[in-house]
Amino acid sequence: MLLVGLLLLNCQTSADKKGTEPFLQEHIEWLSSDERAGRLAGSQQEAAAANYISDFYLQAGLLPFVDSESYIQQFVLNGPMVQALGMENHISRNVVGAVEGTEYPGRFIIVGAHYDGQGKGGIISMETNTDPVLHNSADDNASGTAGLMWLAGQFAENPAKSTVIFAAFSGEEMGLLGSEYFADQMVMPRDSVLAMINLDMIGRLDDGQLSIFGTGTANIWDDLIEGIPADSLRITKIPDGMGSSDHASFSRTGIPVLHYFTGTHEDYHRPTDTADKINYRGMEWVLNHTKQTIRSLDTYHPSEILFNEAGSRDRSPTVLEGVTLGVVPDYNFSGAGFRIAEVRSGSLAEESGIQDGDVIFRMNEDTIADIYSYMETLSGFSDGDDVIIYILRNGSEIDLAVQF
């Protein structure tokens, strides 16, 4: 085991020397390789990925955060998604390291990314009509994991004044289980945590479009972000601090959050989400912006940061169960209604005449204000139900009859 670990560390050290893009590519390709089998939470392949991240933390010089001897924080998988995927009562694990602050070790900035993937699909796949097939889960979320590792190395070499915690979460695809467990188990006072920054799907930057969610969760975010050069990025700020990624676990507890996100795409939760489609130059831009955000955040005193509840705390992560239209949400959309980024081929939505870019604003008599009310309304329908869906398309209102 020691020899294997040393070989891994040598490999990772050489990746550091190559530059940012080769570093990111090496780690994404390892995490999303066929040998990792999609990194489903609770699987042997997820455990191997956890050990890989732990080895990197050790080589980079991070301190174990959960206890004095290990970066691993174990938890038990339970819940409806877990049951549907056949992983109930399996052990999963977060991987958590820290770089101690040079001046304020009792202040904390949490940087997180989930490293679990979709395994062989099933209920968490967007291709529900196929047999189990490997989902390499490269953008979602080997990209964020590799970015987390890069940032950990950067801050290990040049620490911040505050302690920066680097948390690789598992169980995200099953309902934010790892990040919720970490947030519930935090031993430091919550008012000592300046903020949590989440990296989820940062590998497919298109035309420089970067979305930063959670900008409404603290009084400082707008000015802080405006003060960072955007360079080649075209940034959209979205106030909502909730949603279906790990930052929501912290926003619910009153901690300001940001979520860096380069957008959905046709490979989202599909077997085609592979490493060869990652925009590594774009990732470097996103991560340089993230690093500057952490550095700027580090200059604030906790008393200067006021949490704002941007998004209802009782909102639950999106769960793909029950009836479905077969659409990908537009997570960048901040207007009224539920905007569709993509209609899946062969789906009920396609058969019913729904198109990419349509905005659903009512289903039967229920008003659809956003993605959350859409999911809540959808959960009330069953197979065989007849529904009238009201949409906006190019400024015109259209109603479509759908039978689930």
Description of the structure:
This protein is an alpha+beta fold. The protein has helices at 2-18, 20-31, 44-60, 80-84, 138-157, 177-185, 221-226, 247-251, 280-297, 348-351, 371-378; strands spanning 63-64, 72-76, 91-99, 104-114, 162-169, 193-199, 209-213, 234-238, 257-261, 327-329, 338-343, 359-363, 366-367, 386-393, 396-403. It contains eleven helices and 15 strands. It folds into two domains: 2-304, 3-Layer(aba) Sandwich (Aminopeptidase); 327-403, Roll (Pdz3 Domain), CATH 2.30.42. Helix content is 30%, strand content 22%. 49% of the residues are buried.
Keywords summarizing the entry:
404 residues, alpha+beta, Aminopeptidase, Pdz3 Domain, 2 domains, nine-stranded mixed sheet, six-stranded antiparallel sheet, 11 helices, globular
Helices, strands, pairings?
Blueprint: H1 2-18, H2 20-31, H3 44-60, E1 63-64, E2 72-76, H4 80-84, E3 91-99, E4 104-114, H5 138-157, E5 162-169, H6 177-185, E6 193-199, E7 209-213, H7 221-226, E8 234-238, H8 247-251, E9 257-261, H9 280-297, E10 327-329, E11 338-343, H10 348-351, E12 359-363, E13 366-367, H11 371-378, E14 386-393, E15 396-403
Parallel strand pairs: 4-5, 4-6, 6-9, 7-8
Antiparallel strand pairs: 1-3, 2-3, 3-5, 7-9, 10-11, 11-12, 12-13, 12-14, 14-15
Helix pairs in contact: 1-2, 1-3, 2-5, 2-9, 3-5
Number of domains: 2
Rg from C-alpha positions?
21 Å
Indicate the overall shape: globular
CATH superfamily of the largest domain: Zn peptidases
Characterize the quaternary organization of these chains. single chain
CATH topology of the largest domain: Aminopeptidase
N-to-C SSE series? HHHEEHEEHEHEEHEHEHEEHEEHEE
Count of helical stretches: 11
End-to-end separation in angstroms reads 53 Å
Q: Please give the CATH class of the largest domain.
A: Alpha Beta
Low-confidence stretches: 1-15, 312-321
What characterizes the major β-sheet? 9 strands, mixed
Relative helix content: 25-40%
Q: Which structural class do the helices and strands define?
A: alpha+beta
Under the CATH scheme, which architecture of the largest domain would be assigned? Answer: 3-Layer(aba) Sandwich
Strand percentage, roughly?
15-25%
Mean pLDDT comes to 89
| Overall strand count | 15
